[in-house]
Design goal:
Number of strands: 12
Largest sheet: 5 strands, parallel
Number of domains: 3
Distance between the termini: 58 Å
Strand content: 5-15%
Shape: elongated
CATH topology of the largest domain: 7-stranded beta/alpha barrel
Helix content: 40-55%
Length: 516
């Protein structure tokens, strides 16, 4: 008996503008600069083309088959891994397909995987995986919001995997992780068994790259000895496997975009479930079912410092994205801004995350042979690797300028808030209406210092006269602090306890300002 799991990677990137020029970005605000950096027109054209050739017809085929087989002894099952970037575009351009997918998910015959929201390379920021964690959690929340689905299995961008990633994914609560069944990590073992990470408590499912690539790359190859590939022939290959399970994982675009409809790829997809149903020893299964049913048969050890794997190209490593100096330069320049999220929240931080999308690094690949042909196919309208590098370099340079400008702006705001305003708006402390203390505050730092110096009588006078809350509200535009001081008055807090509470409020505000 062999459990058969068919999984689809579904992703469409946001592509760097080939014609990017810095002056265009100079004329827009940080919230609008996205359109200057990324080619939304090209992205839409490609998305619409792939939708008509693949996303809609392939999903309809699967939807209809799942519906037809739902009450059979062997329901047909599939698994999807949607990037957050793909889902953004789908929501905007074709939300009707989301309804169909949601209907499929509710049958319990479709599994949704987690991945990085931006289909990014964040997992190889080995010195700081906080960004990776953020993107995984963002993706998980998106899947829950759109489909009401709790993900259990993780699939990293392009199946990138090593021990460090396994530990991180395990810490996020996933039951299993899918990666490439690369020969060099198996040491003669079969990819059709379940394994566990040697460094983490997480189960590892391996993709059968031969059976996957038979569909993904060789289906239309008339020089291939097995051409034409029929569903009957393919299912017989699966049936002949004596091991516990087979996991086939391909790009969804395989079905209509990479192989056009006239190649027979839709017919293949449509017939596959029927031939599987005829084989008593093949059970359609989901990854989550495999990890619960199949006992692990050993460990997988992939050292993060020297042997990270992926499903890309023949080498099945990171060279597809970091194999030359152009790729490494851009990657390092983008990663250098990783502290940005602690300094500036909002449009620029989100923009930084879009710059991490793996595809734009993939387009700069400069290898030879078959892998180079595949890379050129995907880069398409963006041109040569050098063209992509030139445009990407300009984008990153401009992005750094925007970050610097925004940082200086934030620093100026912090300085004003902390050090204070002009003399006309300073707060002057008094004992009562007639006796001034000669102590004044222009900003939060001055105010904190004054809280430690003036008498509790003065603090009570200003608190219960509403002077403090009026000053914070009207002069510093700080309604939050004003409200907190108002609450102290309502609670009738006085004396040294009042001083202590005021100090606590202002110290927390200063801490918040310093992290703007």
């Amino acid at each position: 008996m062999v459990l058969f799991s068919l999984c689809f990677e579904v992703h469409q990137p946001r592509r760097i503008r080939k014609d990017f020029r810095s002056w265009k970005a100079n004329k827009v605000s940080p919230s609008e600069v996205f359109e200057a950096f990324f080619d939304s027109k090209l992205d839409k054209e490609i998305f619409e083309r792939v939708y008509s050739k693949c996303y809609f017809p392939a999903t309809k085929i699967i939807h209809d088959v799942i519906s037809e087989f739902s009450n059979k002894e062997k329901p047909f099952k599939v698994c999807y891994s949607f990037s957050g970037v793909f889902l953004e575009q789908l929501q905007k351009l074709h939300p009707e397909l989301l309804d169909i997918i949601t209907e499929m998910v509710k049958t319990n015959h479709v599994e949704l995987l987690s991945q990085t929201y931006y289909h990014s390379l964040a997992s190889i920021y080995v010195n700081d995986l906080s960004e990776f964690r953020y993107q995984v959690e963002e993706h998980k929340k998106t899947i829950k919001k759109l489909f009401g689905y709790e993900t259990k299995i993780f699939e990293n961008t392009e199946l990138i995997y090593n021990n460090l990633i396994a530990r991180e994914v395990a810490s996020l609560g996933f039951d299993g992780i899918i990666t490439e069944g690369a020969d060099r990590i198996l040491n003669g073992k079969s990819p059709h068994f379940l394994y566990v990470s040697s460094k983490a408590n997480i189960k590892v499912l391996l993709r059968d790259y031969r059976l996957s690539d038979d569909i993904a790359f060789r289906f239309s190859n008339k020089q291939w000895s097995e051409y034409p590939l029929t569903a009957s022939k393919y299912v017989q290959w699966v049936s002949n496997i004596p091991d516990p399970f087979v996991l086939v994982f391909v790009d969804y675009e395989t079905f209509g975009e990479h192989h056009w409809p006239d190649s027979g790829i839709h017919k293949f997809l449509q017939e596959l479930p029927y031939y599987i149903d005829q084989k008593n020893n093949i059970i359609p299964s989901l990854p989550r079912e495999i990890v619960s049913k199949v006992p692990p048969s050993g460990e997988i050890d992939v050292d993060e410092n020297r042997d990270t794997i992926s499903w890309a190209d023949v080498s099945r490593d990171l060279s597809a994205w970091l194999g030359n100096e152009m790729q490494k330069t851009i990657f390092n320049e983008v990663y250098a801004e990783h502290e940005l999220k602690h300094v500036i929240e909002g449009p620029l931080t989100k923009l930084w995350r879009y710059l991490q999308i793996s595809d734009n690094y993939y387009y700069m690949y400069t290898g030879y042979g078959g892998p180079a042909e595949v890379h050129r196919y995907f880069s398409g309208p963006l041109g040569l690797p050098e063209d992509v590098y030139f445009a990407f370099s300009n984008v990153v340079f401009k992005f750094k300028e925007l970050v610097k400008k925004e940082t200086l702006k934030k620093e100026k705001i912090r300085k004003i808030l902390l050090l204070g305003l002009n003399n006309e708006k300073e707060f002057r402390f008094s004992l009562n209406r007639d006796v001034e203390l000669g102590v004044a505050a222009r900003g939060y730092l001055d105010f904190l210092d004054a809280l430690n110096r003036v008498s509790a009588i003065s603090l009570e006078y200003h608190t219960y006269n509403s002077d403090l809350e009026k000053w914070f509200s009207s002069c510093l535009n700080d309604e939050e602090t004003a409200k907190k001081i108002s609450n102290l008055r309502k609670k009738k807090i006085r004396g040294e306890r009042l001083r202590k509470e005021l100090i606590r409020i202002i110290e927390r505000k200063i801490e918040k300002i310093t992290t703007l």
